[in-house]
């Protein structure tokens, strides 16, 4: 896997993935940024959310479950001093689909957290990561 980050000006940069996609990142105004893009640490948190959401939806579909909604809300705390690493991350899934049960969703979340989600397992080396979910009829 390869990636490239190009500096544009001040704290503005463009990240390019090896698969050919690009994203604008920027710093906060109090650090010279213009708020023109996502912050790099926000990007890392989104990466965790995307990784684990992909796993959970995939596991449910492989279990022959019909998933009509699978969203992930994340909340993170960071250390107050440099390096301001994540210290706590909470991952909340919102899942729905006909005939889904708590047992099957719980299993998918657990498998993602403990076996499949590379981002979660990596960030879990420095941060306490907790998970929960809500199952919405539909």
From TrEMBL:
Q: Which residues form the signal peptide?
A: none
Instruction: Check the record and name the InterPro entries matching this protein.
Output: KH_dom-like_a/b, OsmC/Ohr_fam, OsmC/Ohrsf
One family name in Pfam for this protein: OsmC
The protein here is known as: Peroxiredoxin
């Amino acid at each position: 896997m390869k990636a490239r980050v190009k500096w544009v000006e001040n704290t503005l940069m463009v990240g390019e993935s090896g698969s050919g996609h690009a994203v604008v990142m920027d710093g906060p105004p109090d650090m010279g940024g213009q708020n023109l893009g996502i912050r790099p640490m926000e990007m890392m948190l989104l990466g965790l959310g995307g990784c684990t959401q992909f796993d959970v939806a995939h596991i449910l579909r492989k279990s022959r479950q019909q998933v009509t909604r699978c969203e992930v809300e994340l909340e993170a705390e960071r250390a107050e001093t440099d390096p301001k690493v994540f210290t706590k991350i909470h991952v909340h899934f919102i899942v729905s689909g006909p005939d889904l049960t708590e047992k099957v969703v719980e299993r998918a979340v657990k498998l993602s957290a403990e076996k499949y989600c590379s981002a979660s397992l990596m960030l879990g080396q420095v941060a306490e990561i907790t998970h929960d979910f809500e199952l919405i009829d539909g």
